[in-house]
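Subject: design request, 225 residues
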């Protein structure tokens, strides 16, 4: 299970490391459905900029290590990230909880989804039914359609790796509770999230993802060799 921290070393900013401001904006302004209704143009500009950044970003050693883990394990990645760096690294099973930056969907028709690659969405870009296009990301105040498949995956896992997430945003943060009680949970983060501090269920590696993930993956590959 990954969060913004896994992409930090690829140059994409996390949400909460800079005092609640994200790329100079209030997270709730640019990541909530209320924010969208308040100023659609601002949100389109903001996500157009992020889409371009993410399109140009390259996977880092953490993403590649998780791909490598597929040599010996059946790996399912559940990511809160809207970038596609896991896919760029070659991971084959990636479930996006909070949507995908490179996709647009219609305000009027959830089933109308198109791949933009790095193209911007403008006001007036509409689906055949006339609905304004918006980024296909999940904002605060919206449902998380993939939460049930994610919980199902976690409940079946034999090992859980949690990398680069503050574990404060629900329902994603609650997924940990779907894990069987007898499985190891490894957490990699240079700032261990509060929920894991002193919790015996978590094996914490207080490291950046780009260093901690390849180290842990090497150990897991050795134990399974
Ligand atoms: P956060 O910004 O809340 O947390 C990022 C985590 O990554 C923190 O725990 C950091 O300590 C850690 N971190 C920073 N640099 C790191 C590095 N190099 N290696 C490993 N970890 C590092 O991001 P998320 O937990 O992903 O949702 O945020 C969850 C959700 O909140 C996002 O998906 C987004 C946001 O609002 C929506 O937009 C719906």
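Subject: RE: design request

Done. Sequence follows.
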């Amino acid at each position: 299970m990954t969060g913004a921290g896994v992409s930090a070393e690829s140059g994409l900013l996390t949400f909460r490391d800079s005092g609640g401001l994200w790329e100079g904006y209030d997270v709730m302004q640019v990541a909530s459905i209320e924010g969208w209704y308040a100023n659609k143009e601002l949100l389109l500009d903001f996500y157009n900029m992020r889409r371009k950044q993410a399109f140009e970003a390259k996977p880092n050693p953490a993403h590649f290590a998780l791909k490598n883990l597929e040599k010996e394990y059946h790996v399912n990645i559940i990511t809160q990230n809207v970038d596609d760096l896991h896919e760029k690294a070659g991971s084959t099973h990636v479930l996006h909880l909070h949507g995908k930056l490179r996709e647009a969907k219609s305000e009027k028709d959830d089933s109308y989804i198109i791949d933009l690659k790095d193209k911007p969405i403008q006001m007036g870009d509409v689906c055949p039914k006339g609905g304004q296009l918006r980024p296909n990301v999940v904002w605060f105040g919206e449902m998380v359609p993939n939460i049930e498949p994610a919980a199902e995956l976690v409940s079946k896992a034999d090992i859980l790796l949690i990398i680069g997430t503050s574990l404060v945003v629900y329902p994603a943060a609650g997924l940990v509770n779907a894990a069987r009680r007898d499985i190891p949970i490894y957490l990699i983060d240079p700032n261990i999230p509060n929920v894991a501090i002193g919790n015996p269920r978590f094996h914490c590696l207080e490291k950046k993802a780009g260093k901690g993930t390849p180290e842990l993956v090497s150990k897991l590959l050795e134990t399974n060799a």
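The first strand starts at residue 21 and ends at 22.
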